[in-house]
Amino acid sequence: MNLSAATGSASVAAARYQSSATCEVIDGCITCGDTAVEMEIVRIDHARELALCECDAGRETVEIALVAPVAVGDRLLVHAGTAIAHLGREEAA
Amino acid sequence: MRFVDEFRDAELGRAVSARILSLVEPGEHYKLMEVCGGHTHSIYKYGIDDLLPENVELVHGPGCPVCVIPMGRVDDGMAIARQDGVIFTCFGDMMRVPGSEQTFLEAKAEGADIRMVYSPLDALRLAKANPDRKVVFFAIGFETTAPSTALTLKRAKAEGIENFLCMCNHVTIVPPLRALLDSPDMRLDGFIGPGHVSTVVGVRPFEFIPADYGKPLVTSGFEPLDILHSIEMILEQIADGRCELENQYKRVVPYEGNVAALKVMSEVFELRPHFEWRGLGFISQSALRLSDAYADFDAELHYEVPGVRVADPKACQCGEVLKGVIKPWECKVFGTACTPEHAIGTCMVSPEGACAAYYNYGRFAREKELV
Description:
In chain A, 13% of the residues lie in helices and 38% in strands. By secondary structure, chain A is mainly β. In chain B, strand 8, helix 10 and strand 9 (245-247) form a beta-alpha-beta unit.
């Protein structure tokens, strides 16, 4: 399974940065600041330690080596394409 | 959304704000530093400073990784970006940071192959797709970002990708905090500790602040109620005569941090003897370089870089802003010669920089205040 081909991992970035030339990135810099976003796992490629994750801004491929083991539906704290914390699972409403 | 809605509850916010008011002594002045640029941004975005009593002042710390990159390092990166056969990659907000002559964005406009990436993994993908070119990743960031670079380098090594190189500018948060605390023009009463850096390093490395310097530190989340609650916890410590390290962001930050991340970082990086920070000067053991095991991926060993120290523009007072000595609007060029569109200093370039955050949100409140 090729997750990167399936999603285009830059989609989140593109949404956030398309206006960066005029500095209208008003939600802070998620790429390189001390800011991370919460995302939910949609699909996992265990062999390559990558997961397809989703948040309101879109989907991206995320490194999961630092938070393994994970399962589909888990919520991760993602920074610069890498999950740095496991936040558990979204409980059903 | 879980972890968001409940931390933006206006009624709870007012209650915490009232509690903060009850904790401060009239006539006393409380100066608290938020270390992290993400906190600075939240404070302005949600108008948190408007909910605080007048004698509680928030000072913006050095926690924006873009803001602390000195011009000389941008010039070094530029020298690599201009080499034949190089695809130079960096994060979006690094593109607009001025070097001594131009920004990466301007160099790109002149024909250099400089591309914006969202993660180091994207840069590695570019390397795989362009085997006849060298792809250089300009790595910046605190310990939050360093694991991402480390994992990518491990991946490159495991997959035998030889055309991927990294110019490492990763910095560490503790040495500049110590430098700030040792600075004679600094008077602070407490710290709002960084949230996501602590996700990686844990809260233990910050124990020296209450222990050695007698200042309370509360590790904080990024939602408005997180920050208000952290301020309340700091003021409560001061009111009780306590001085401790507390963790408000327990739902995300474990005491020990992310052990797997620390392990991969120690494998791929080693400490530089010293590194220059914009506005703060040289700070020993405050940055990372690639370890000997990853020397083959080190762009600084592969290419000749000028390595020249470039003084900051005279008009720019980023250094004083980073040290919290002046407020962004007190800088001589704030909002006039230096704006997000034409930034002179790095604090205006990065959306997390104190000046940019203030320019985007705070200046309107300031204008109202002055009328």
